[in-house]
Amino acid sequence: MPYQYDEFENCLNQQFTLQLTDQSIKLQLISVEKHPNSDTVNGVQAFSAVFRGDNTVMLQQQTYPVEHDSLGSMQLFIVPIGPDEKGMRYEAVFA
User: Fold this and answer.
1) Greatest alpha-carbon span in the chain
2) Cβ-based neighbour number of residue 63 at 10 Å
3) What is the pLDDT of residues 35-52, one digit of tens each?
């Protein structure tokens, strides 16, 4: 079953662990936004989740295995969207 907006909204400001071959990276979920102009398909509306990591590792656009305490294991396609004052931001879109 696809992830829902509410599931991610409930995880705002929580840590997600992204697994790389030789290390794990902590990302913080900093925003979740519905895509208001998207169609709802099978009861699911498209949304995006923005994560922040530190500036020590620059992740490339690709799919990564990610773990979260309540959401479990998932594969997320993330895209770097640029830094803010606290670190590098990445976006995952759910449709």
Assistant:
1) 40
2) 10
3) 877 666 666 778 999 999
Q: Which residues, in sequence order, are bridge partners of residue 83? A: 88
Whole-number Å distance between alpha carbons of 54 and 84:
10
Structure tokens at 41: 């398909």
**Could you tell me which residues are beta bridge partners of residue 51?**
29, 90
Contact between 80 and 58 under an 8 Å Cβ cutoff? The reply is yes
Whether 20 contacts 84, CB under 8 Å: no
Q: Is the predicted pLDDT of residue 71 greater than 80, yes or no?
A: yes
Q: Which two tokens stand for residue 67?
A: 């773990």
Centroid of chain to Cα 64? 10
C-alpha 89 chain-centroid distance: 10
